Structures are given as C-alpha cells and as structure tokens.
Amino acid sequence: MTGAAAAGVLAGCSDAGSEGGTRSSAPGAREAAARTEAALRARTSAASRALVAQYDAVLAMHPTLRERLAPLREQAAQHGTALAPPASAQASPGSSSPTPSAAAPSSPSAISSVPADADEALKQLAQAERRTSDAQLTALATAPPELARLLASVAASGAGHAYLLGGGA
Fold it and tell me: pTM higher than 0.85 for the full model?
C-alpha cells in the first residue's frame, strides 16, 4: 500500500510541471540556471587555472621539485578543464595541456613571488590548494547537483594535494 501511495505522489509531482502556466516559464528558468551554472563553472575553472599557474611558477623557480609536483599540477589542470563551461571547453580544446599556463612562469613577477626556499614554496602552494578547495566547497551552495558533485570531488582532491604538499590537515 505504501508503494502505491508513493507512486501516486510521484505521479502528482510530474503532472504539476506539465501545466500550461509552469511550462511557459520553464525555458526562462532553464536559461537563467544555465547562465548561473556557466558563471560558476567559469569562476571555479579560473581558480584551478590560477593554481596551475602557481604550480608552473614554483616549478620554474625550483625545477628539482618537478617529480613531486608534476602529478599534482596535471590534476589541477584537469580540474580546470572539467569545471570549464562547455562553450569555453570546446573553444579551447587543448586547455588541459601545460602550454597555455606555461607562459605565466616566464613573467618575472610570477617567479619573484615564489620563495627561494623550496620548503616555503611548497607551503605557499599548499595554502593555494587549500584556498582553492575552500572556494570550491563554498560554490557547492549554489551549484546544481551534477556540478556540486564535481566540485565536491575537486575540492577533496585539492585538500589531498594540500596535505601531500605538507600543508597538514
């Protein structure tokens, strides 16, 4: 009997969305939601790309850290690609490759902001990972379910990166 009642409730919910008054506002609501999601994706993707640029700057200053940092940097690049809005991801298909952000470390200001001490550079990178992860967690509040799951996963990965970089818990 409970199953039949649940089926009736579900059927009632699906019928409510097909009424004439709600149907006319649905395309506008979908467009607004799509714009909001695209803006959220652009913002979180940009944060991941900025993190990649910071990895590149640290690697330019401390090439001996390449073996340790390369896998983390590559994952951050993949996060930027996964979070990007579909239109921008199609516009720049090679955005996960190291070349787009490779120009950043050649900037003297990007390299000069990296500490000369490798341990300090790693601490700064861990802090950047943590800040990026925190921002992605904050974005969960306004994200649609599919994007929220992706953001949660990326934020967890960033927290793991911070830990691996020596940032502790």
Answer: no
List the structure tokens of 15.
């019928």
> 83-105, pLDDT tens digit by residue?
999 864 344 444 343 333 333 44
Cα–Cα distance, 111 to 14 (Å, whole number):
56
By the 10 Å C-beta count (0-12 exposed, 13-18 middle, 19+ buried), 60 is classed as middle
The pair of three-digit structure tokens given for residue 75, joined into one six-digit string? 């994952």
Q: 115: which DSSP letter?
A: -
Q: Which residue has the tokens 């959220």?
A: 40
72 within 8 A of 159, measured Cβ to Cβ: no
Collapse the DSSP code of 159 into the 3-class scheme (helix H, G, I; strand E, B; otherwise coil) and give the result. helix
Smallest CA-to-CA distance from 96 within 35, 158, 160, 52 is with: 52
